Amino acid sequence: MVEVDFEIGGGALSRDEFGVLGPLVVRRDGRTVQVTAAKHRIVLATLLLGSNRSVSAAELIRRVWGEAPPDRAAQTLPVYVMRLRRALGEPKLIRTTPTGYRIDLLPDALDLHRFEALAGRGAELVRAGRAAAAVAEYERALACWRGVPLADVPSESLHEVEAANLVERRLLVTSELVDAKLGLGRCEEVVADLRRLTARHPLRERFWSQLMVALHRADRQADALDAYRQAATVLARELGVDPGDSLRAVHRAILAGDQAPPRPAGPAWSPAAQLPAPVGNFVGRAAELTRVAGLLARSGATVVVCGPPGVGKTAFAVAAGHAARERYPDGQLYVDLRGHSTSPPLSTSAVLARFLRAMGVRSDHIPVGEDELVRGYRARLRGRRVLITLDNAASAEQVLPLLPAGPGHGDPGCSVVITSRNELRPPGATTVRLDVLRGDEAWKLLARSLGPEAAAAQFDALAELARLCGHLPLALRIALGNLVGSSHADIASYVAELRGGDRLAALAVDNDDTAAVRRAFDLSYAALTPAAARLFRLVAVLPGSDFGACGAAALLDEPEEVSRRLLDDLASAHLVQRVGADRFALHDLIGVYAADRAAAAGEDLASARRRLFDWYLRTAVEVGDVLYPELGASGPPRLTPDEARAWLEAERPNVLAATEHCAEHGPRELSWRLIDAVSGYFGSHGHHVEFLHAVNAALGAARAAGDRAAEATTLVWLATEHRNLGNPRVALRHLALARPTGLLKWLHAGLEGVVRLELGDLAAAGGAFDRMTALAAEDWAPPHVRIGALAGHGALRLMRGDAAGAAELLAEGLALARAADGSNVEATCASLLARCRTVLGDYPAAVDLLRHAEASWYRTGVRPARAEALAHLAVALCLGGERVEALRTAQRALGLVHELGGYPRIESEVQNALGLVLRHLGKPGPAVAAHLRALELAASTEYLFGVAQSHAHLVGALVADGRRAEAVRHAGTAADLAGRGGFAVVERLAAAALAEPG
Prior knowledge:
Layout: E1 18-19, E2 25-28, E3 31-32, H1 38-49, E4 55-56, H2 57-65, H3 73-88, E5 94-96, E6 100-103, H4 111-127, H5 131-142, H6 156-183, H7 187-200, H8 205-217, H9 221-239, H10 245-255, E7 272-273, H11 286-297, E8 302-306, H12 313-324, E9 331-336, H13 348-358, H14 370-381, E10 387-393, H15 396-399, E11 415-420, E12 430-433, H16 439-450, H17 452-457, H18 459-468, H19 473-483, H20 488-499, H21 503-507, H22 515-526, H23 530-538, E13 547-548, H24 549-556, H25 560-572, E14 577-580, E15 583-585, H26 588-601, H27 605-627, H28 641-665, H29 668-685, H30 688-705, H31 708-724, H32 728-737, H33 744-759, H34 762-776, H35 783-799, H36 803-820, H37 823-839, H38 843-860, H39 863-879, H40 883-900, H41 904-920, H42 924-940, H43 944-960, H44 964-981, H45 984-994
Parallel strand pairs: 7-9, 8-11, 8-12, 9-10, 10-11
Antiparallel strand pairs: 1-2, 2-3, 4-6, 5-6, 13-15, 14-15
Helix pairs in contact: 1-2, 1-3, 4-5, 4-6, 5-6, 6-8, 7-8, 8-9, 8-10, 9-10, 11-12, 13-14, 16-18, 16-19, 18-20, 19-22, 23-25, 23-26, 24-25, 24-27, 27-28, 27-29, 28-29, 28-30, 29-30, 29-31, 30-31, 31-32, 31-33, 32-33, 33-34, 33-35, 34-35, 35-36, 35-37, 36-37, 37-38, 37-39, 38-39, 39-40, ...
């Protein structure tokens, strides 16, 4: 039996028809219904926990009788269901499904659903900065609980897994409620609750951290430090470990006298739901599914599903994952490793970056090195209950870094399902082998799709078809592509044709598992029109996991409407599958078959691949013309900004795969030209790990080809990306290696100037902008070079305190940018000019300029600059008296930068803007916390101006909070940094803040 605490919240179930968050409750028409039989309660509880989906008979049997059910359990279960229906007084409430039983409930009919909905709204309100409203929702959620979950349901497996998960979820929501109250300053209120929580859950470091923060903020530092000593003692005694990083960080902050110690590291977790949709018409595998369900019921399992190609391993793993997902409330991760695909297999780094992003890790917190990625991934999973599905693995070596912990150190909360053609043996794994379907199962799969009349009329023919397809699911589904919609007579004809053999079958060796699949493929292929067959052969060269009609048109060198019609034909034949609006994918076995057909037909795949890659490049250049015209437009744009962004998002994996393919196999020049075309997008959308991998591949290709200009281009983009990631010194090293020529000179000089500005080296920055000014006078230079130089010098003057002089330069740059139709440089000049207007006290003008800049960056999709513009807009609004709108704007900026990740300098600006707004709203405590976060971010990336600015902002917040002695210390630090860096604007800001009355 699971114990649960009710320190915060708690209350009686009200107006719910069903309740599981305590003893089982059923209310019908306002009256309580008694379910007296123990086994009936187990059945009902299991159905309620799996409401709105089919619960298999196997799962119900396991819940009722455990792992060793009686021989007649399958016959007894329907009797229990019948009696349960009678007790509930509604025969139709529990429906029979092909695999088990199902109960459908309205959203608020089950207390568990109401609890989750309320808790979810609380989390959304926290993210929106509405902590008071969030507290109310969290408290309503916790009021749904009435006691120990399923207290009167005598099922060991339900209490071991389901009830334990419910208790874990409740404690998590409790901790989120405490965080929200702490954010509102209700520290004394939560201390008593946290005392009880730490007493009953002494090994939960999060509650100890929250207790320490609450005590510290209540000016009870001695009690806070004593709480740390208690936590350290119990952890050492019970587990033999020291306190974790979060607890130690809070302890260090309290010892240092920080008034706003770091918040306890919360889960910040959005459960991933990456499992594909279950395959329709899934049949058979009952024994195997039951076995895997039993394995996954005990978390910490590693299951390898192996079998021949086409046997349905992916469909099986997806079905098993959906059946087990309730046991893994922290989410389900899924990836196709492409171990046997014609496309290159996914790298470990790419997979881990995707997983970390799905688990809520911001892009700037995702490491680049593979070892660091593995450590970060495993640390993120520690203590969680996540189901990880690794599909299409080629080898144990491919999956080992993706396991939630190293060999012999399994994480007890996470389980892994691996599919492979090979019998992989990672440590601690259990192998489940899938063979072909039984004859009756294969017949059922065909019959369900064809309909009962056709199946009954052609019983023998369908059985023979199943046999000729080797009872292999993929072969059967391909055959169905030819049969669905045919007349009854056509079924027998098709069987006769298949029985006659085919050209590929004559070449098959004995015991070849794929022979049956190739028979079905060959008949489907033979039925295609010549044009559709040609497209099918050409898709073998596709580099990524999916493709669209435009890419198919490039392969064919035909109009898009032609490729759309042919793709419809291929989808109808089940030779390609739809994976989204206008997107298609190939099963890896079909990809191999397509390559075989292309070779047999003598297809010129190299030319098709080149047409495809040329289309990638041509369209990427067009996209760049729309979104980043200042980088050198090649002609009038044919796409809208929305179309350009949509194309990049859809084709991103393919463009990166094409880049790496060209870098390795040629033509090499396409690799760096593709990178050059799409770098502006990748630099502003947070795909840092994948992009760095592709840029490094292009750099290697450029060096191998001895192309100095290409090498310089890729080095500049590497520097840009490292600047985005907050690695300015690394960026400078790449810039130092580059030897730019032509148009690249001004990009190189501009980037160096910006990085030098951020590092606080104003003299070196001025030299870089002087080089841009000189370049602008050359005949080849477009007007954007002059605009960039004016913007750089304007930013430099603003930092030095000459806002009026900076405004003159920036006004000139803005006028030139408008004449040159450069949306991004126009927005840059407008944003910088607005900051000058803010310093000069002209807040309405600043607001107008910043709104224009933000709208421009919204259209082009440059999200980092947009977030920064919103931050400065919040400042201008606040100082102009529009403080409520300023707070909303600052919160929008913070949400955008958190979504984006990878830009600590910009987040530092956003946090300082938020702190300033909070101070003017009379909330000095939260303002101090925001400025401290800004200081931490700026220091982490060596953003010296940001460090000095954060200290200056802290002066005002501390004075407002009545902490003048601390304010004086920060003012001194700001003045010292401003003097060393030449940041006169910061020195004046600190002095003005210190002069304000406390």
